[in-house]
Amino acid sequence: MRSGVKKVLAVLLILGGIGAAIPGQVFSPRVFREGQPDATDLAGLAAGIFRQAGAVTPRQKAEAIWCFFLTDGRFVPPGMWYHIAGWAYEEPQGEVLDPLKLLHSYGFGLCYQLAPLLEAVFRAGGFEDARTWFLTGHTVAEVFYEGAYHHFDADMMGYTTTGRGDPRTAPVASVAELAADGSLFLSRLLSPREADASRVAFPWYPADVAAAAIPDLAALFTTRADNWLFAEARSPQGHSMDFVLRPGERLIRYFQPESSDCFYLPFRYDGRQWQEFPREVAAYGIRTEDGPRSQKDARLWATGKIEYRPVLSDRRGLNFAVFEMRSPYVLIDARLSFQASLPQKGQALEASLSVDGGRSWERMGERQGPFRGEWQVRPAVLSAGPHGGRSAVSGRYQYLVRIAMSGSRPGAEIGLRDLRIESRLQLNPRTLPALGPGPNRLQFEPGAAVERKTIPVETATLCHFAKKALHIQSREEGGQIVLYPEEGKTAEILLELTAPDSLPLAGFDAGARFLDLREGWAPDKCTAEIRKTRIGQGNASREAPRASIAWSASADGEYTPLWEFPPQPAWKDGQPVRQQLRWPEVDRQVRSLPSGTRTVYLRYRLKGMGLDSPRLAVLCAPPRKPSRLEITHRWDAEGKSFSRTETVLRPDQPYSYQVDTGAARPVVNRAIVLYCPPE
Q1: Residue 222 falls within a domain, yes or no?
Q2: Confidence of residue 191 (pLDDT cuts 50, 70, 90)
Q3: Which of 121, 201, 578, 625 is packed most tightly, with the most Cβ within 10 A?
Q4: Residue 43, Ramachandran bin (φ over 0: left; ψ between -120 and 50: alpha; else beta)
């Protein structure tokens, strides 16, 4: 990190509450109802899906994952996913494809999000391979088992078998088989009155069946000239649901939105202006003002908030304080409030916010003396639309708050107390431990005693953040930015990663999306599909591209490779695909470092290949003393409100408990609250 950022983080250690100065942190607390899959970890989620379905064979396991994500949600309650366009979008990357973000902050999207999600869970479930196809109008997933690929589509139809045998045991067709023979679709299922029940396994998603649109679906496959394979991993995995509760910090997760107008409203930047991203479709009753609700049933999004009340016990000799706020869920907005005392004229308080680690600051507000009372400030609205606005924190997962004090003199010092920083967030309530009637067995699981700190760097700022950047240029097309090497040269980006307060590093994460653009196609952030590009179309662009990530504990030392772009994909079934989109999403973790390592260096190299969506994080293990955690469940039943708080004295160990909601009766879940009390 550059020195300016290090200075900011040093102040955080004094007043903001991170690292070694704060005792009693609670690391990534998780609570599950008995039998509930753990969606915070993809491998744990897959194992939970298999267990819940009783799946043993590869076919059973693949079907269980497919069924778990069917968009109408009635086959595996509570229905993890529903179908809606335009709401799972985060600038500058665009349509959200990270599986943990999709699972926890959203729980909805279209085929181009669901197919990569299936691919990621297939891989995490132990399958040898999984991949995603773009069929120009639809996106689907395939999973490899028993020597072949098999097509599963949780968004549109389901899966299709070959032959005339029992569909529950017959082989599931691949995309290539469906593309070669449209009758695999058309001979089985055309409409509700034209279905061969002996050749179609229930359940299937009925949208195209009810509309008698199966011929159109078949045509998406059989018009093979525009079928493109994402030859490598399609879903980025740079996000983590890890978080830390500091003393005085509370995470409240509701099972419903706090109000109908409380949601994360995505905005799109086209290189000139910002606009609301969701689009209304009158024919289907889709209205932006309704928020990201399901169009087919009563499922909604949910909201929550993180409340932090830091202790301001030692600010002598300092004229500003910086506080760090992080969220595992996508942020909607933020608010800062405190009691202030400015006895004299000329005294002032200024509150500012940073979303890039302290490199730049946006002023939220200023208060001049004399003043005494409560002061509240929010981030400024940067862009406004018909249904809401965009602030600096909208669509983010972290930010810094700075309070600057000026004009203080002996005998008339500025007073600050009862500081409260609140982050409002959006979440998928179907990932929460919902209570049912009667006794409920719950399991608390601790996270690893490390802090994972995402470094807020984007494609447009990566080279500014770098210690060294050679032969690299930033190319922009309609608000979409790609870093690309100078013609015929090997570009190098060297990054220096250091933990706050120079704490020893426990590990780091490094990743990005790499882009082979020789075919003249590039990713489209607005559709997660493809767009024409001029980047990489020079004379030398036809040579085989090269790219790599490596790391070292010394800037000039020997570098250890983490990833290299392979010349050709590995064809598991021995059948090469000509029409490939070679845009690998690469994420690598290092969890074993030499003792006492405080800085690592990452080296990205590119030749004839682009890069965007950089992903960086450091892990540190700050010393701490034992703390406690309070878990509160809130629910309604028979017109009354109920609450139960369980205290976990050792939140570094698993813990089981029970919540009895009473005799059999409808239970309406309201919230689950995790709180780390002040010491």
Answers
A1: yes
A2: low
A3: 121
A4: alpha
Does residue 98 belong to any structural domain of this protein?
A: yes
Token pair listed for 345: 């004229």
Sheet containing 348-354: give its strands across.
320-326, 398-406, 348-354, 362-368
Provide the domain limits for residue 551: 451-620
- The verdict on whether omega for the bond into residue 203 sits within 30 degrees of 0, i.e. cis, is yes
User: DSSP E strands: which ranges in 505-639?
Assistant: 505-515, 521-524, 529-532, 546-552, 560-564, 580-581, 585-590, 599-607, 610-620, 629-637
Helix residue ranges, H only, 70-109: 99-101
Residues 6+ apart with CB under 8 A from 441: 33, 34, 656, 657, 658
Residue 218, pLDDT score: 87
**Which of 187, 210, 230 lies at the terminal end of a domain, its last residue?**
230
Percentage of the chain beyond pLDDT 70 is 91
d(CA 572, CA 582): 16
Q: In the chain, how many domains are there?
A: 2
Answer yes or no: is pLDDT of 244 > 50: yes
CATH code, domain with 552: 2.60.120.260
Q: Model-level pTM greater than 0.85?
A: yes
pLDDT in the model for residue 207 = 54
Tell me phi and psi for residue 540, to 5 degrees. Answer: -85, 0
Query: In the predicted model, is pLDDT for residue 576 greater than 60?
Result: yes
Domain with 73 in it: what CATH number? Answer: 3.10.620
Quick check: helix, strand or coil at residue 279? coil
Contacts of residue 618, Cβ cutoff 8 Å, sequence gap at least 6: 452, 453, 455, 497, 498, 499, 505, 507, 508, 509
Domain boundary (230, 260, 292) is at 230
Are 551 and 602 in contact by the 8 Å Cβ rule? The answer is yes
In contact, 202 and 216? CB cutoff 8 Å: no
Q: Please return the burial class of 643, using the count of CB atoms within 10 Å of its CB with bins 0-12, 13-18 and 19+.
A: exposed
Interior CA angle at 369 toward 366 and 375, to 5°? 50
Q: Tell me, yes or no, whether 20 lies in a domain.
A: no
d(CA 170, CA 162): 7
